[in-house]
Every structure is written in C-alpha cells, then in structure tokens.
Amino acid sequence: MSPTPKHPPNHPRFLLFLICAFASAGQLAIDIYVPALPTMAHFYQTSPQAIQSSVTGYLIAYAFGQLVFGPLADAYGRKRILQLGLGMFTVGCVLSLAATNLETFVAARVLQGFGIAATNLLAKAIITDSFTGMVLVHAYTYMAIAWGLAPIIAPVIGAHLQEAFGWRSCLVFLLVYSFGMWAVLWRYRETLAQPVHLHPKTLLKNARMVLSSPVFQSCFLAQGLCYSILLVFNIVAPFMVQNTLHQPPTFFGYLALAIGMMYFLGGISNRIHHPRLPTAEQRLRIGARVMTVAAFAMLGLALAIGLTVWTLTAPVLVMAFCAGAMYPTLMAKGNSIFPHIAGLTSAILGFALLLVSAAMMGLAGFVSIHSLTPLAAFFCIVGVTVIVMVGKLLHHLKTPAPAAHPVVAEAAAERR
C-alpha cells in the first residue's frame, strides 16, 4: 500500500467544512426527529417506551461503530472507511422511510447509528492528519462548535418540518443530508500519511490498559451521565409537553433549543480564564454539585406544584449549563491519559460514554410522562452519581502516573 496521496492536497477551508459537516451528522440524526416521537408512536400503534427504543438502539450502534471504524481507518485509510460508514447510513435512511412497522424502523436506525459513527470519529482523525500547532487547536474549536450546535437547532428544524410536511419529512431531511455528505466526500483526498498495522494481541492489551484505568473509568461515567441529561430530556419531554401539557411540536422544539443553548453556553464558559476564577478541576466539582442541587429543586417543585412547562424546563436549563461546562474538561482528561494510543483511547471513550448514555435513555423510557416526580428523581440519582465520579476522578488525578506500559514498546516494534 502506498501511503502517499497521488492527488493535490485538500484546501484547509474545504477540510474545515468537511470536518464540521461530518462531526455534526451524528448529533443531527439523533435530535432531528425527537419532536415527532409522540406522532410516530401513534402511527406505529406502540408505546412511548417502544418508539424511544429507536433512539437507544441508534446510540448503542453508534457506540460500537466507533470501535470498529477507528482501527480500520488507521489500516485502510480515512476515505474508504468514510465511504463504508456513509453507505450504511444512507441505506439506513432509505430503509427508515420505507419502514411499515416498528421493528423495521428500529433496525434502520441501528444501521444509521453504526454507519454514522465513522463520520464523527474520522473527523477528529482528519484534523490530526492535516493540521498542527495552533491551526489544529482552531480546527478542533470549529468542530466542537458544529458538534454543539447540531443538537440545539435539530429539534427546531424537525418540529417545523413535522408541522409543515409530516413526521416523515424529518427522515427525508437526513437522507438529503447524507447526499450532501457524499458530495463533500467525493472531493476529499486521502489524508492518512502512513497506514498502521496493529496486531490484535497488542490492540487487546492496550484496550485492557485503558479500561482498567480508574481515571478513564471516572471520566467516561461522569461524561456519559452529563451527556445523558440532554438526551433523556429530548426523549421524555416531547411526550410530557405534547401529550400531557397539550402543546404543539414546535413548542417543544423551542424548549429543546433553550436547553441545547444552555449546554452550548456551558461549554463556551470554559474559554473564560482569570486567576480569580476556579480552575478546571474546581469547576468540575462545582458543576456536579450545582447540577445535583437543580435536580433536587426539580423534585421539590414536582412534589409541591406538579408538572408544568416551567417546573419541567427551568431546572433542566441549569443542569444543561453545568453538564456543558463539565463535558470538555472530562473529555480532555479522558483522552489525554494515554497519548501514545490517543486514537484507541478516543474510540473507547466514545464507545463507553455513548453506551452509558444509551443505558440511561433505556431506563428513562420507563419514566411516567404524566408526572414530573419520576423524572426529577431520575435526575437526582444522576446528579449524585456524577458527584461521586468527579470526586474519584480528582482523587486519582492527584496520584502520580505509573511508568510507561511495556505495550508501548511492543506496538512500536510491530510498526517497524
């Protein structure tokens, strides 16, 4: 295999456009149709829990896809694996539109989730392939903005599409978006300079080393729980807002927009630095505690007032801001533990946090849509668990790092 691209290199602005379009695709495909979940449950003549399984199945497949596509892209190139993943996603989009029963629709969503995992994962790899220094930092910033904006605007787009053209129009939007990604991918030139062959035995040893790290364990659990707050709200609240409070889909869309904006602002707050402000580690502890206080405030409001738009939304706005503020620091801590195997660490971290989020969404599917108390209690448990995980993380970060693992030398020998 010749590692050197034979075509002219990609223009930096084109690469930034590709990275933003591909990084946001996975988030867009989660949130574009959540306002339509109550209507879809009625169409398929099924329960809220059953239709919510299409989101959970998507996330689980998304998690496993990262583990598969990461090593393959290092061995066979970015473009080939992007073509494979995007092809699966497009077929899943067509299948979801043709689905006449819930089982087929869930299968289509699983195929979509598995395929789209390639785009987000390889957007990060393309950044590393193509940029260095401050340009690399700026490219990650643009990617983070695109990734963060997708779940903010997607519910609003989905709600308006549903009201104007019906719920299937949300799925048509995803199919059209996939065609757009195909057009961008057609212009993309391979950026992998040197394919890496990693022996399965070494891969397993490295994976075991990552998973056994207490810092990694604390990071992915806390990160997955923070992310799940947004996801749980997006699959439970549409039923509360539309079925119980009798508001239109667009009303929920704008509530989701507000929640997503608070999450986004929380992430942006990490760029504010001053000697008198808390450190990143202190912000983790503060964020976890404020998030939990907001959850218990929701529980108090649920018991005293009951389910209203404001008792549902106001505490989640605070929780979303805290989760967004904590997420980048948790991601940085988790990805930087083993810099010599950063690609594998990133894939495992993405897999683990999505699996945690999917598990939380699966549990949230059993939450009553007629009362706020069960959802508030659920968020209280999440908040307390995040406090515990952040405490463990900060404790282990104070412990001196162990000596380099012998697997590093073994991996280097195999590459030679």
Commentary on this structure:
The protein is mainly α and 416 residues long. Helix content is 80%, strand content 0%. It has 16 helices and no strands. It is globular. Mean pLDDT is 84; it is low at 1-6 and 403-416. It has helices at 12-23, 25-31, 37-43, 48-76, 78-98, 102-130, 133-165, 168-187, 200-211, 214-244, 249-268, 280-304, 309-335, 342-364, 373-397, 406-415.
State the helicity in percent bands.
over 70%
Tally of contiguous helical segments: 16
Judging from the principal axes of the Cα atoms, what is the shape?
Answer: globular
Terminal residue distance: 15 Å
Determine the strand fraction and express it as a percent band. Answer: under 5%
Mean pLDDT: 84
Order of SSEs, N→C?
HHHHHHHHHHHHHHHH
Topology, number of strands: 0
Condensed summary:
The chain is mostly helical and 416 residues long. It is built from 16 helices and no strands.
Q: Any chance you could write out the topology, listing elements then pairs?
A:
Elements: H1 12-23, H2 25-31, H3 37-43, H4 48-76, H5 78-98, H6 102-130, H7 133-165, H8 168-187, H9 200-211, H10 214-244, H11 249-268, H12 280-304, H13 309-335, H14 342-364, H15 373-397, H16 406-415
Helix pairs in contact: 1-6, 1-7, 2-7, 3-4, 4-5, 4-6, 4-14, 5-6, 5-8, 6-7, 7-11, 10-11, 10-13, 10-14, 10-15, 11-13, 12-13, 12-15
